[in-house]
Batch of 4 targets.
Target 1
Amino acid sequence: MSTSIESLLREICFRVKVKGREVLKEFPITPAQFDLMQKLYFNGEQTMTDLSKILGIAKSTTTGLVSRLEIDGFVERKRREKDKRVITVKLTKKGEEVIDKVILKRIEFVEEALKDFDESSKEKLKELLSLFNESLKKYR
């Protein structure tokens, strides 16, 4: 049972992800850069070190991703006032707009797929997914 649930979740997540990333064709953003932008969008301003850890990539790779995104105006870097050695990165308004467009595309895709469901089924699906999500939080 767990195997089939994992497989279904993986397939669903992949389909939603691919549909949302269609928006990225409008921008000079790679999937790796987009992943970094998403982390900033949902977690707020981060240090370079924290971004590297969150993404599971080398700090030098993170620096390359951030540099390109900064040149294109999607993120900005700044040194901390208290400790000038620490550099933080945050999403710009332009970067937020990209993420917002991707999320909207995903929502539209899910809405389209849910047209085949009656309201009761939609509520039950939401309830079950919420329960499952809460259960997963125990195992961080």
Target 2
Amino acid sequence: MKTITCLMLLCVGIVSAQQTLSLPEGETSPKANLDQVAWIEGHWKGEAFGGIAEEIWSPPLGNSMMFVFRLVNDGKVSFYESGHIQQVDETIILQLKHFDGNMRGWEEKNQTIDFKLVKIEPNKVYFDGLTMEKINENQINVWVLIESEGSTEEVLFLYKRV
């Protein structure tokens, strides 16, 4: 899965997708701040990859919004993610790390998966290969561009507030 995630990030620019965008080579992220994405805060649950996906997001504090994610299939954790949206200078970035069901990391110790900001709207934020949209107070949609076995697809996570 680590290889899939890394390949996903390398191929984002070549693949045309409906809901995700790519930051063109050499361009910098637009100005943004955490208050513009504070609507992500909350406990969210939905179905994905044949199981139950769950994310818990904190409110902005200390120049970040932290989160944890888990995917449960057949009553067992398939994998976890831990990460944040961090304020960096005049923009924001989403960074995460993956862990298997026994908390063994996928990425190297000092490595993160980084999603640079591409575009921000009042209820929608586009990171490079990952888009989050507030549908209403109790629903958000998250699209992630994933490559597996040579093909790329956008995976939709339909989350409801818990």
Target 3
Amino acid sequence: MATFKLEVITPQKKVLEQEAEFVMLRTSEGDMGILAGHAPFVAELAIGEMKIKNAGEEVRYFVSGGFMDISAERVMILADEAMDVREIDVERSKKEAEVAKQKLGKLKEDRDIAATQKALQEALTKVRLAEQHL
């Protein structure tokens, strides 16, 4: 099967650079699958899971927002946060979710509420993905 270059970059570091046969991830419009030769495309990413398939192996990542740029040669993921689901600390993510839930009840400003809701969604998604991997 044909492959393409996949790069995943966060503000902190380059998370991944490898060849891939297939990538599936969540965009703001829904889940999207990418194969080699995909038409050029740019999409906003949503909080969710990214599946990468290559040489019969599948690796899963947590991705928190950002953008995806598909060109003829590569797929570049510019994510707010990205990590292999095997690296997620489930207990820490559960604590982050609890803190966000408690904080939500006390907030008054819309922008603070939105940021806290995003943090809660990120933490709950990490827990779900990590528990699926166990």
Target 4
Amino acid sequence: MIATDWPATATRFLALRLPPGADLRGAIESAFAAEPEAAGFLAAAVGSLELARLRPAGRDDAIEVAGPLEIVALSGTVSADGPHLHLAVSDSAGTMTGGHLLTGARIRTTAELVLALAAGQRFHRPHDPATGYNELAFD
């Protein structure tokens, strides 16, 4: 296990409300890039999508899930190397689909997000030969 910690007082919260048509992942990346902190995570997320673009577990290709969809869960970390975000959505029948959030997931009515920004920390994603992926590291 690799771990880091920081005092709760070093965490700042940024609330976002995204309008219809906005790209969910792109908006998170842009909001983070505009802030001085180098480490962040999603503290809360609710809203709806007209389309979700996901990469399910064990796959290299994207799937598209047509809406209307409710955001059931959105979690992950954000760094200057990019985000690692997982999204779960449900359709009008309550069927859930989830995976890695990709660019192109469009907001339907709104998305309300709270991004936590950690002062004094730096998240980055070097290549991990054990997994073959760029994995989270801390400074």
